[in-house]
Protein: Translation initiation factor IF-2
Amino acid sequence: EDNIIVKDLADKIGVSPSQIISKLIGLGVMVNQNQSIDSDIAIIVAEEFGIELTIKEASKKIQESIEDEFNLDYEDNPEDLKSRAPIVTVMGHVDHGKTSLLDAIKETSVTKSEAGGITQHIGAYAVNINNRKICFLDTPGHEAFTSMRARGAQVTDIAILVVAADDGVMPQTIEAINHAKAAKVPIIVAINKMDKPTANVDRIKQELVENALVPEDWGGDTITVPVSAKNRQGIEELLEMILLVAEIQELKANPNRNAVGTIVEAQLDKGKGPLATVLVQKGTLEVGDMVISGSAFGRVRAMLDDKGKRVKKAGPSTPVVILGLSEVPNAGDLLYEVDDEKTARSLAEKSKEATRAEQMKADQKVSLDDLFERI
Ligand code: GDP
Ligand code: MG
Structure:
């Protein structure tokens, strides 16, 4: 099904179609230049010319075909959708206060709800504001955001762009704006460090305008909130704005289906084995469910919430740590609940094959000199 026209392949590699055809004959494939060949064959042929075809595409296609074959990420009926909490990522230039802001939000909400406090770091946490939930990805910087997007995962609903009021729009601020725009994620600007005497909101707003973010009070549609992570000024307003934007987005998911989530982070624990923080996006994940993520699979043996408390269930927009996977999954990969172990095993095996193929290509990269020698 994943076919490539021989002529196109020749163009891509930079050789004549007849050279490709003769290699194909050597592989037992009889075609003319207008016919198509399997992408796996195309990869092998390209290799013969010392060219690394974008095998990433191939493995991604394998992944997609796995998803299709097993109908892992099916569309839900609109009537099954229930509203869900927004998932928020904090982005911005280094030292503008991303970590401090996340801490301030965590503390603000903790003092309001439970006195116990959030002790462990699991890469994501949920806060309750007037009985409404917001889920924060606790991985400051856009690295996490971009690597997840590179893997096809769209986790973020709203981006908080932190800009230090005493420093202004910087290169990483612009990068963050571009990433959020590419992902079509709405941006709320938190103008941070308002406690500093050199804070200058108007200057920041002017710089935002120069980057196509026109503040609401300047006639545009970008929400800006002056805050101080240091003395917690403006945090509640920021949270209210997040809820407002989320309301407009009408975020929804079906809680009554096989769970689909994204691995936020994962590591090997000496005693407990592979631990993975999963952000559930659809369905409800329960202890005892069979899950698969890439080549890792297993039955969920136990689940912990973002406060380290054991839980039995996790619905949409809920971060949980799960125990029971066969190996440590990759951050950014999707996790699927499947019906039985047989399905999980076969999916994991297919995924392993795809990874192996990718690995092999990486090892076999041939230099241009080799190419000429070979031809
Ligand atoms: P990140 O690199 O964006 O995560 O920034 P950090 O949260 O690590 O903050 C960088 C520095 O700015 C630290 O020294 C913080 O204490 C300081 N900082 C963060 N927020 C504020 C604020 O609201 N006011 C002041 N005065 N300093 C802040
Ligand atoms: Mg930081």
